[in-house]
Recover the amino acids of this structure.
DNA sequence: AATAAAATCAATCGATCGTTTGACTTTTCG
DNA sequence: CGAAAAGTCAAACGATCGATTGATTTTATT
């Protein structure tokens, strides 16, 4: 289930390819595409500078290969976490109450991703870089990852509130709800300082999950009822 | 009220300083600190490369001067938009119902900032860059701008829900609510594509404001009441 | 073992980076 | 007016960038 970001290959050349991809993930995440040099990437991979041109053709093509690997990997994670629910959603056999818990499930998966360590730290950084300063490679992430997720979330929200998933208002609301979860990643320096901690831990994860669940519940189950 | 980001100076030297700051705002926003070169900044300002060292000492110090100017300017904007409410909040004479509309007011100000064109586009980009890939200059923005705003918002939320503004759960909830508004800036490429539009317009602003108002209302007025 | 293919490497290319220098022009002020 | 101060500018510095070359070593195949 928990597949590696890039599987361990047998041949020697593919092993060097993988080492370069992992080093590129680390360096691009830490400093962004422009500021990460192919020399430090090659050094971190234990390879020569020329190996990048040899295996990928150019720095840009190495980056593209990395983005495609990330997209495929994250799709797998979501399929493993909420696969059968999303399948029923795509099949059209999902009722309102199920949609609400589906929204909460997707939110929990997203929040959980933000608390995974290791390579996920770097994957998040890369995605943030591409969101906030999109390169011409952004469509790779959008089409391969962001759009499928966003559309599904919007459809769940539409079912939960009895609305039309094509309406701009519904899409905007879905985006705002998403923003709640993502804010703990993209503005992590700020929330960490505000809490006065060194880093977020499992107790924070629990609090965030609980409050997001509560928000989803209120927004889906109490709307169009005059607030008392 | 609507003060310029950097006031127009009289002397010749200060005018060159301002031209450099405005050009730096544009270039740092567009490409980030590392990728923006002092040559293109000087060119855009109609100045020589050496003028940056002459007026600011170095590229880094130019950036610091820019961040300080941004922080001061945004504080003015918020003071002009919600000054008396925030003053009453700081004075401690704010009741629950007022706190709810205060939250909505702050949210509307933040959302509105995201729809202002001109230099605000660039200010947002700079702040996003510093949030997602903090440089050693990040504390300038945090202490001078983010923390005062975040603390006030948290205190409003605590009053509105009858909670303790020091509790981590309250700080985390305030952050999540903030995230709803900011998501339209930091993930703008995604929401624009999802809507299938070229850019967000006033009708989107209206929809976003309405739905955020609704969320604030639900979260502050319907909580701890068993959902129907 | 011999040959071809794949992989690795040091060295180098032209371009651009931030910074510095020193001469030059403009402004300021007694 | 004339000297000092402030501002401007082209040129050059060493460093680093992405990319390329051509030789060398390692692996795979017959």
């Amino acid at each position: 289930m928990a597949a590696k970001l890039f599987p361990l290959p047998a041949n020697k050349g593919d092993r060097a390819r993988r080492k370069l991809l992992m080093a590129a993930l680390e360096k691009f995440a830490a400093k962004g595409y422009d500021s990460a040099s192919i020399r430090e990437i090659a050094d971190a991979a234990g390879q020569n500078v020329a190996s990048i041109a040899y295996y990928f053709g150019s720095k840009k093509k190495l980056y593209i290969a990395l983005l495609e690997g990330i997209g495929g990997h994250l799709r797998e994670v979501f399929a493993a976490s909420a696969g059968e629910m999303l399948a029923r959603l795509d099949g059209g056999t999902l009722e309102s109450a199920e949609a609400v818990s589906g929204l909460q499930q997707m939110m929990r998966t997203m929040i959980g991703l933000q608390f995974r360590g290791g390579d996920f730290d770097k994957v998040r950084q890369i995605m943030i870089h591409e969101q906030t300063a999109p390169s011409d490679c952004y469509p790779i992430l959008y089409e391969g990852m962001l759009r499928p997720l966003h559309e599904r979330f919007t459809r769940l929200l539409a079912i939960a509130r009895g609305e039309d998933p094509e309406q701009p208002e519904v899409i905007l609301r879905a985006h705002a709800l998403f923003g709640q979860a993502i804010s703990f990643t993209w503005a992590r320096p700020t929330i960490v300082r505000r809490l006065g901690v060194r880093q977020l831990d499992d107790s924070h994860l629990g609090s965030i999950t609980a409050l997001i669940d509560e928000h989803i519940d209120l927004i889906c189950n109490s709307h169009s009822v005059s607030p008392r």
The radius of gyration of chain B is 20 Å. Chain B has two domains: 10-57, 60-221.
